[in-house]
TrEMBL record, chains A, B:
PROSITE patterns cross-referenced by the UniProt entry: CNMP_BINDING_3 (PS50042), HTH_CRP_2 (PS51063)
Pfam families per the UniProt record, alphabetical: cNMP_binding (PF00027), HTH_Crp_2 (PF13545)
GO molecular-function terms, A-Z: DNA binding
Listed name of the protein: Crp/Fnr family transcriptional regulator
Organism of derivation: Pseudochrobactrum asaccharolyticum
SUPFAM superfamilies xrefs: cAMP-binding domain-like, Winged helix' DNA-binding domain
Cyclic nucleotide-binding domain span: 24-94
SMART domains cross-referenced by the UniProt entry: cNMP
Domain of life: Bacteria
Boundaries of every HTH crp-type domain copy: 157-231
GO terms of biological process kind: regulation of DNA-templated transcription
Keywords attached to this entry: DNA-binding, Transcription, Transcription regulation
DNA sequence: CGTCTACTTGAACGGGGTCAACGAGTGTGG
DNA sequence: CCACACTCGTTGACCCCGTTCAAGTAGACG
């Protein structure tokens, strides 16, 4: 695409491709492309079990995942931890939440590559092309949807149902960025990590996985999730994948029903 | 303040005052004030138990609370519900999350007044004054912090601890907008609503409240929370109010350490 | 005075946790 | 080559936190 801008940096170009692809589906005009061209982007590679952001660390940039699976969690002083999300391709992590510091850790489960954009550079780009802020807002809104779903999971769904629900969600997200289909997906998450995300003990999570298998609904083995009976699974979990579609703005970057003035 | 703009609409002026007050503390220059002046804002009054947004409803505007207490929740088909937050002054609600529709209901607990800003008008203002987007991003980041804290509550804190934690959080938020102090705050939330937020039954929540009272930590009676021993309560809950301070940007609306070009 | 809704308490039940092993796969060093 | 360590997964038995069911109190409002 963007052949209209031959001078563009190769890393920025990869970032633009990522933003244009599903599930973000950004649709840029020249003004946004020009602003992005001046963006300061680093491609950072993180090995498995490496950390991208440490709890308590000062945050000066935002990260967008290009490949690999991550794990965002919060450590408590009593040794417990709560996994907040498992970010993958197209997910962003890292905007600081409190007093300039991150209140959660972002670790890599598999090797990851992430685009790292300094906040000051991002702010400059937004001032050049304000519509770029809409993408960030979309990403925030989507992330909020995911958090709400996870809160609903641990707050009022039974262990079995919430396990099914999360494994459906992760499959849909993987599928949305081309890493799986309705049959299943490669899932590098350990049962310990899944348990921490669902507010369960690994022992009990294991029992739930076994039950889902014995009911002929789902298979979770060798870092692979296979849906044996997706329909029944969706019914059990009362799952509705709509919740994570991005749609504060429509794809032409105007508010639906009321196009923006350019 | 803004006496430099005599033509300004009185509702917009009230909105600006709200944005400048704690905890948002926005610091506007003329360009932002001019963009805000053209903003289409309605002041909407909602009576107690009225709803601002219904689950499944189409969303075309964003709401900022001026006064009163609200309750954001998600209904499940099995009759359960998860309360996501209790918004109060300075909190925003209502940016749609999925397929153009809201996946949660926003109801008023007390009578509320909210500023309603159509998304298209907001988008126009941001295009005139891009820094306005930073405020929205701040609000999103803060809301994410709150959701993360609520998820951590139900995911890995005991019933007693999470009750203490939420009542400390709500007190701090009330205090931040001038509706309480370190002694306590007026809390119109029923024990049923609190229970739904904490993933507990009202019966068990009641026992936890009783235990907190018997331990001499906290009193919750007649829509009023009084901290009897705030220090011990904070220690019990391992509470750290920092998590909800807004600080993606500093108060001069530039990224800390790297001022924006104007 | 009756009927709400919010709150309160007791007693019994059960979902999920805890504790304790064991199995399987993988990598490391002798 | 095997022993060893280590992490992830698996299973069983027991127990406890929080639920469920049932009932009753207190205040608000007609």
């Amino acid at each position: 695409m963007h052949n209209e801008l031959h001078t563009i940096n190769i890393t920025v170009s990869a970032l633009i491709d990522l933003l244009k692809a599903p599930p973000i589906l950004a649709d840029f005009e020249n003004i946004e492309l020009r602003a992005l061209a001046s963006l300061q982007v680093d491609e950072r590679r993180v090995q498995a079990d490496g950390t991208i952001i440490n709890q308590g660390e000062r945050i000066r940039s935002i990260h967008l995942v290009q490949s690999g699976w991550g794990c965002v969690y919060r450590d408590l002083s009593n040794g417990e931890r709560q996994v907040l999300d498992f970010p993958m391709r197209s997910d962003f992590v890292g905007l600081r939440t409190a007093a300039g510091r991150s209140y959660n850790t972002v670790a890599a489960i598999t090797p990851m590559t992430v685009f790292e954009v300094p906040l000051c550079s991002l702010a400059n780009a937004i001032q050049q092309a304000p519509k770029l802020s809409f993408i960030l807002i979309e990403l925030f809104a989507r992330q909020r949807s995911l958090l709400i779903e996870h809160l609903t999971n641990v707050g009022c769904r039974s262990a079995l149902v919430r396990t099914a629900h999360l494994l459906l969600e992760l499959g849909d997200r993987a599928k949305a960025c081309g890493m799986g289909d309705d049959k299943g997906f490669d899932c590098p998450i350990t049962q310990y990590q899944l348990a921490d995300a669902l507010g369960l003990t690994p022992i009990h999570l294991n029992r739930m996985v076994r039950e889902l298998r014995e009911e002929g609904l789902l298979m979770f083995k060798n870092s692979r999730v296979d849906y044996l009976n997706r329909k029944a699974l969706i019914a059990l979990a009362e799952y509705d994948g709509e919740f994570m579609h991005m749609s504060v703005f429509d794809k032409t970057m105007s508010y639906s029903g009321a196009p923006l003035q350019s």
